[in-house]
Design brief:
The protein is an all-alpha fold and 191 residues long. The protein has 8 helices and no strands. The longest helix is centred in the first third of the chain and has 33 residues.
């Protein structure tokens, strides 16, 4: 019970860091690292948010056919591939725009599906309280992981944006896998 809560809280925190970092710092990456005009960078960030919206919509549409876990894992694979593609040193703005869209598309289903699993993990008696704590950890992720990139970007440069996203995505994937294994196994996992 407690390990699942800790894992889920960390997933919420770190995943929200991906979402907020991509949404808040993509334009800075485009302007400072890729020399894109600020107005065009702002439009390209819109692709991330369009992807996020479509991802949430598609998640609801496929929820009758795929389990929450499958949706989450597919989403994390989409994010991972997109971030890796962004690391490849292409200066093609169309390619970068597609990567931003796909990151948003992958991000869209994760939060709602993890939230929907809360009653399955803790039962209806504790779900409301646990969801409040999950939201708290989400906000911690929003207000720590994203600003950390801003600080690093000021000191190192915004070329680190895709690498930072890769690290945060990797942490999210690893925690999700650990949580899945723990949730679906009879044996306790020692951390």
């Amino acid at each position: 019970f407690y390990l699942i809560f800790i894992l889920l809280a960390l997933v919420f925190m770190i995943y929200c860091g991906i979402e907020s970092t991509a949404g808040q710092w993509s334009a800075s990456f485009l302007v400072h690292a890729k020399n894109v005009a600020p107005s065009l960078a702002a439009e390209m960030v819109g692709l991330f948010f369009i992807g996020l919206s479509i991802g949430r919509l598609l998640s609801g549409l496929v929820s009758n056919f795929l389990s929450k876990w499958k949706i989450i894992f597919i989403s994390e694979i989409i994010i991972s591939i997109s971030v890796i593609l962004m690391i490849i040193p292409f200066d093609n703005l169309i390619f970068i725009g597609i990567s931003l869209f796909l990151i948003g598309l992958g991000c869209g289903p994760i939060f709602p599906n993890f939230s929907a699993m809360t009653p399955e993990h803790y039962g209806s008696k504790y779900s409301q309280s646990i969801m409040g704590m999950q939201l708290t950890f989400s906000y911690v992720g929003f207000f720590t992981i994203s600003p950390l990139l801003g600080l690093l970007g000021d000191f190192i440069g915004f070329n680190i944006f895709p690498y930072y996203l890769a690290i945060v995505t990797l942490l999210t994937v690893l925690l999700t896998i650990l949580m899945y294994i723990k949730r679906n196994s009879k044996k306790p996992i020692n951390i």
